[in-house]
O-succinylhomoserine sulfhydrylase
Amino acid sequence: MSDNWNKRTQAVHGGTRRSQYNEVSEAIFLTQGFVYENAEAAEARFIECGEDEFIYARYGNPTVSMFEQRIAALEGGEDAFATASGMAAVNGALTSMLKAGDHVVSAKALFGSCLYILENILARYGVEVTFVDGTNLVEWKAAIRPDTKAVFFESMSNPTLEVIDIEAVAKLAHAVGATVIVDNVFSTPVFSCAIEQGADVVVYSATKHIDGQGRALGGVIIGTKEFIRGTVEPYLKHTGGALSPFNAWVMLKGIETMALRVNAQAATAQKIAEALEGHSVLERTLYPGLATHAQSDLVQRQLGGKGGTVLSLDIKGGKEAAFAFLNALTIPVISNNLGDAKSIVTHPATTTHQRLSEEQRDELGITAGLIRFSVGLEDADDLLADVKQALDSIAR
Ligand SMILES: *Cc1c(COP(=O)(O)O)cnc(C)c1O
């Protein structure tokens, strides 16, 4: 195991832990518990649980630990804690460190469930949350106070694909000692270096690009050893958000091919976005990899110019035209996951963001004609031809 390995090598070998059989592929330890040699050993383990020792799968498990070590190595973080879903990770990262009376600043363009935690749950427990336009540094600066405990944002927002400047927000937050928590799903572990750029804590829904094949739910929190073992672990091990060993194994194997998949998906997304820009039935083509994207300089700086695997199309003619477009597609499936090998199209206004008021949707640019398109691993020309025929069908 080497700290000097590049991402692709970490993705294949990082965190590997072999049993006495020296298996090549990672073993699945489908066990909730672990046997102690004797009563004294049990007592000792409960006093201090060593690096390669386990007590109960809610606390930790060898397969889960391999996944945690692999993603931590990939992200350049000291440690990680795996969770049952992306939302368990978001909730765990926030609630493990916050208490009544604390102040949080959050971007307002959030995945629906993230918004629920920040807007409803934290408020219920006495945490004050100030929402800002995440792309506006003036708003961040005005909202962050000397007593701000944490800032939270999605580095690339869903579904309008705005990019938030991690380095700049981290600088403002760190000036008052606030913890920077970044939900990094849309940026993907392949294109992002969030920790290097100033994030203290990075959260992923592993359900997305890490599995990448639509099989399992999972999540992970990455941060310093002190934050993960001192703050997150005590909270999560007692509240039960543990990742199952089987799902951890799915994620471990997913990480091995993630860079190949995500690079191929992003290349196709770039090709489709470029080909569709300016199409007569499109109000807007939103993709961070386009030169016309509002923050293309930042995309260069923060993501090496890579726009990710998702693009959004704003179709003229509102909901009716958007539905006609969805129904005319033959390759992408209508669903609500993303980062999958299969292309997936979603109408956020009536599904993932249905819970928001019309006013909130307007503010976030989630129009009735907006389609989120998660680009999969299909042949790029097949996908482009399909999208074009579906757009042409509604232009008639
Ligand atoms: C999907 C998603 C989540 C939640 O992940 P689950 O695994 O579905 O719980 C959180 N944040 C973002 C940005 C997501 O896309």
Observations:
- The chain has two domains: 7-254, 259-395.
